[in-house]
Amino acid sequence: MAFNSVGIVGGGAWGTALAQTARLAGREVLLWALEADVVAEINSRHANTPFLPGVPLDPALRATVTLADVAACDAVLMVVPAQHVRTIAGQLTPYLSRGKPVVMCAKGLEQSTGKLMGEVMAEALPAATQAVLSGPSFAADVARGLPAAVTIATAEESLGQQLAVALGYRNLRIYWSGDLIGVQLGGALKNVLAIAAGIVHGRGLGASAHAALVTRGFAELRRFGSALGAKPETLMGLSGLGDLLLTCGSPQSRNMSLGHALGEGKSLKSVLESRRSVAEGVYTAAAVTRVAGRHGIEMPICEAVHAIVGDKVSIDAAIDALLSRPFKAET
Prior knowledge:
Layout: E1 5-9, H1 13-24, E2 28-32, H2 36-45, E3 62-64, H3 67-71, E4 75-78, H4 85-92, E5 101-104, H5 117-124, E6 129-134, H6 139-143, E7 148-154, H7 157-167, E8 172-177, H8 180-202, H9 207-228, H10 232-235, H11 238-247, H12 254-263, H13 268-273, H14 281-295, H15 300-309, H16 315-323
Parallel strand pairs: 1-2, 1-4, 2-3, 4-5, 5-6, 7-8
Antiparallel strand pairs: 6-7
Helix pairs in contact: 4-5, 8-9, 8-11, 8-12, 8-14, 8-15, 14-15, 15-16
């Protein structure tokens, strides 16, 4: 199967970065964005100032406001915010031919249902052949052509290999996996844990506290993944531990920077109002907590984040509750 043309659904930072990458890989690329100003700037000035400032885009990259045009490409990447996947996928459905590969690139759980993005897509876009792309990758780094590695998950190995060749190139290594659940969960939960890591940093609790938080957060990710059917080796890989380390280790992360602002005493409302981009962990925290409750999974850090962003508890009270937990075996 040849993938000479790639359609990108979503004109935010990550969608634009993946569009740029596909051009570097030699594909024809058409990007759909909801915002008419983003489409106009990409086509006229070869830039996306609102979401990816300072990064010049390939002049051959074209943008559109028409989903039907994107659906005609050989493969489609779904790169809208997680909480909008169901709506946009439903709008794409009438134009998509049966069996067309659609690669889910959104990271999160649906807040209202707790479902994985793949489950949402299966319901809203049933004609598609599903794949998932995730891993440690900042949009600005990838768009500038800096080296990175990610994972693509598909049910059939041959499709994963073909998509890896079509979307990857020398500076973006794409590894194949058959574990769609594990690849999705790593990308979803790391956003919640990154908020916690940002709070630790913003509160000035020190590097030791940060290391402890990330390590115990990874333990929560592994417990959650095990209950939902993820493979342990997937969670130890790029889309799990790798993405967690990146997102919890740099203020370039939208979720960590949001947590940092909260830790400094800023309100969630003020932080969100100052941004055009989405911090997925704010919405995924509620879904993770709900799903964990249904399965009886102990997730104290994720629950604390949910309580903080839901304005149910103060940051100091949440920290005190975590530090007051009984001593226990590490594993």
